[in-house]
């Protein structure tokens, strides 16, 4: 047998050990390759979003490649650690350091080439489906035809081959100083009694609890800076949760004699304490990877699903035009053009026109001083709400006004003045009572807020206003505008002018849908890759410890435990190690979803439930697969 055959047989005879590692590497190659196919697809250049898509794919490729590099490095190191005793035996039989290094490099090269070839092959088979998903999410209107790029194949092969070889050299470098005895001892697990600190355990709970509080009470503005604080709290809090609090919890269970001496709890809890301590860093890593996957997938899917409701929130009116009265002729022409375009495209609509006035405020409260208000009469405001089937507020009295604000600003302007003075050309008018409501009108570039006053008060404003302070405001109600989004967006693009400003729900919806579809398309595959890597890491660690575990169960068998009892203990311990990080990650993600819910008006319950359910099914299948391998090995030993 040649040396190459010896290295190849090592890989072939450890197929089951390398399976999860191989599949995860193959999945990374598949995703990388299919994104590369999109970049080099000849028809992609015909679309307007080509620059955004190429930048997004480039960022995704970099993330996939860097993460794959770290993942392969960790995985290779784990396998080397689990086979230390084997390498020690080879060393005692006379294999030289250079030969051992050659064997490690050749083994890693064989697995790397196999995953590259398999990844490109499977990626080629899935390319058509991937292009269909790409076309559907990004709304290209037609499905991109099947295409295989030699550039995509070449880049994938070169980059991943370099990655596997670099990882091989890093592993070889890490083994260069180890003696034979160190190699023999490498696979042994620590036997010291697990210790913990109550102070660090309480700090872990405090950090996580405060991070949850920040997420639970966040809103659209505060989440921008709280997000970094939450991450700075969650990561060390989760680390301490597994390294300290988990040991403290099992110690509490061991102190409860009624629980400890019931059934097989003594054996299960005692061994689980050591496993949690030995695997604490692993569980922390898996939790963070899973939480990132759950959070990013849920948030992106929630935003993607909420585009329609968010467009109705930020653009309450279906279509509006506003212009100063000085541009009256151009405004009339634009309105006629707009109505003709709707009629030509057979888009049903109702419309009305009002004439608001611009005023400025004076107040002792600095936030409300020198603020521009676009003023509407109550009658006009009522008619506009009726046009859009909105709830109508009570009519203000002669000395009252309703200030309309966007709900984002609504949260931060909490200090309301007792009165406001509105300055026009010849007089000042004091409004003694100010009521505030979320705006049901579209925002305009002319004012920060809108104001609704009684009809006679509005007449006083409009009569004393300058010509440039009076405006024409055209409002449309479009039943089922979602069915005509493309036509309305195209019409909207022709309505812009130097003095005329359009606004439309359909345009906001299209913009948000496109941006979220890009993020969703780029992020979902990376999230799945993170989650599969987390499952693979658990698989690696199980195989690294399986010999020690089997020896432990063999001792239990000799003292009288049945196969069924040992299988029950093994299943429970595996379940704890598998689902403990999953549950913690779900809780982390749940508070991230709550932060998202505070931002959106649509519910994120169903989108987040679908995401978690999908990941749970995958994780459960992975658990059953590993449990069956584990218990089958246990049965053979017994």
Q: What structural class should be given to the helix and strand makeup?
A: alpha+beta
Uncertain parts: none
The total of helices stands at 21
Strand content: 5-15%
Major sheet size, sense and barrel closure = 7 strands, mixed
Name the helicity range.
Answer: 55-70%
**Strands ordered across the widest β-sheet:** 7-6-3-4-9-5-8
Mean pLDDT: 78
Lay out the secondary structure:
Elements: H1 3-13, H2 15-39, H3 50-82, H4 84-92, H5 97-138, H6 150-174, H7 180-185, H8 198-216, H9 223-255, H10 257-260, H11 265-278, H12 280-305, H13 307-314, E1 319-324, H14 328-344, E2 350-354, E3 357-362, E4 372-377, H15 378-387, E5 400-405, H16 407-412, E6 420-423, E7 428-431, E8 433-438, E9 449-453, H17 455-464, E10 471-477, H18 485-493, E11 500-504, H19 505-558, H20 563-599, H21 605-637
Parallel strand pairs: 4-9, 5-8
Antiparallel strand pairs: 1-10, 1-11, 2-10, 3-4, 3-6, 5-9, 6-7
Helix pairs in contact: 1-5, 2-3, 2-5, 2-6, 2-19, 3-6, 3-19, 5-6, 8-9, 9-11, 9-12, 11-12, 11-20, 12-19, 12-20, 12-21, 13-19, 18-19, 19-20, 19-21, 20-21
Question: What descriptors fit this protein?
Answer:
638 residues; alpha+beta; 7-stranded mixed β-sheet; 4-stranded antiparallel β-sheet; 11 strands
Structural write-up:
Strands 7-6-3-4-9-5-8 form a seven-stranded mixed β-sheet. Helix 12 runs antiparallel to helix 19 and helix 19 runs parallel beside helix 21. It starts with a helix and ends with a helix. Helices cover 68% and strands 9% of the residues. The chain has 21 helices and eleven strands. The protein is elongated, with a radius of gyration of 33 Å. With 638 residues, the protein is α+β, with helices and mostly antiparallel strands.
């Amino acid at each position: 047998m040649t040396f190459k055959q010896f290295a190849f047989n090592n890989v072939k005879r450890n197929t089951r050990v390398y399976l999860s590692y191989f599949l995860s590497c193959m999945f990374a190659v598949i995703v990388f390759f299919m994104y590369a196919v999109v970049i080099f697809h000849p028809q992609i250049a015909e679309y307007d979003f080509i620059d955004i898509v190429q930048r997004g794919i480039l960022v995704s490729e970099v993330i996939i490649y860097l993460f794959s590099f770290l993942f392969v490095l960790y995985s290779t190191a784990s396998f080397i650690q689990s086979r230390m005793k084997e390498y020690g035996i080879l060393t005692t039989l006379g294999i030289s350091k250079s030969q051992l290094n050659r064997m490690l490099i050749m083994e890693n090269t064989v697995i790397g080439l196999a995953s590259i070839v398999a990844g490109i092959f499977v990626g080629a088979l899935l390319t058509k489906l991937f292009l269909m998903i790409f076309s559907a999410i990004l709304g290209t209107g037609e499905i991109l035809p099947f295409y295989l790029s030699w550039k995509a194949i070449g880049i994938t092969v070169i980059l991943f081959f370099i990655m596997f070889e670099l990882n091989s050299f890093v592993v070889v470098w890490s083994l260069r100083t180890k003696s034979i005895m160190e190699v023999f001892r490498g696979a042994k697990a620590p036997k010291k009694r697990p210790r913990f600190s109550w102070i660090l355990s309480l700090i872990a709970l405090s950090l996580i609890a405060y991070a949850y509080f920040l997420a639970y009470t966040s809103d659209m503005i505060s989440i921008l800076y709280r997000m970094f604080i939450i991450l700075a709290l969650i990561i060390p809090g989760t680390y301490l949760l597994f390294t300290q609090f988990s040991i403290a919890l099992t110690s509490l269970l061991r102190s409860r004699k009624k629980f400890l001496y019931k059934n097989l709890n003594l054996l299960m809890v005692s061994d689980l304490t050591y496993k949690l301590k030995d695997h604490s860093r692993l569980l922390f890593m898996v939790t963070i990877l899973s939480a990132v996957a759950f959070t990013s997938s849920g948030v992106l899917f929630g935003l993607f699903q909420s585009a329609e409701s968010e467009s109705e929130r930020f653009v309450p009116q279906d279509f509006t035009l506003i212009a100063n009265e000085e541009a009256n002729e151009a405004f009339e022409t634009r309105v006629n053009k707009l109505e003709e375009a709707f009629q030509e495209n057979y888009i049903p609509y109702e419309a009305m026109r009002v004439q608001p006035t611009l005023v400025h405020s004076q107040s002792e409260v600095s936030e409300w001083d020198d603020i521009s208000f676009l003023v509407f009469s109550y009658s006009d405001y009522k008619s506009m709400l009726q046009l859009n089937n909105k709830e109508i507020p009570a009519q203000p009295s002669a000395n009252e006004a309703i200030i309309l604000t966007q709900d984002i600003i609504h949260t931060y302007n909490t200090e309301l003045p007792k009165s406001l003075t509105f300055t026009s050309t010849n007089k000042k008018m004091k409004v003694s009572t100010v009521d505030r409501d979320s705006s049901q009108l579209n925002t305009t570039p002319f004012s920060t807020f809108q104001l609704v006053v009684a009809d006679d008060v509005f007449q006083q404003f409009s009569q004393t206003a300058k010509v440039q302070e009076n405006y024409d405001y055209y409002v449309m109600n479009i039943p089922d505008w979602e069915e005509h989004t493309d036509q309305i967006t195209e019409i909207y693009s022709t309505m812009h002018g130097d003095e005329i400003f359009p606004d439309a729900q359909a345009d906001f919806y299209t913009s948000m849908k496109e941006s979220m579809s890009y993020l969703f398309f780029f992020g979902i595959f990376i999230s799945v890759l993170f989650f599969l890597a987390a499952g693979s890491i658990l698989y690696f660690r199980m195989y690294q410890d399986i010999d020690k575990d089997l020896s432990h169960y063999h001792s239990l068998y000799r003292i009288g435990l049945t196969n069924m009892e040992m299988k029950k203990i093994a299943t429970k311990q595996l379940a704890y190690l598998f689902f403990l990080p999953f549950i913690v990650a779900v809780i982390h993600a749940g508070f991230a979803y709550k932060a998202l819910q505070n931002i959106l008006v649509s519910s994120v319950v169903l989108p987040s439930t679908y995401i978690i359910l999908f990941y749970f099914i995958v994780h459960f299948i992975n658990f059953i697969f590993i449990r069956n391998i584990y218990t089958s090995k246990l049965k053979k030993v017994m």
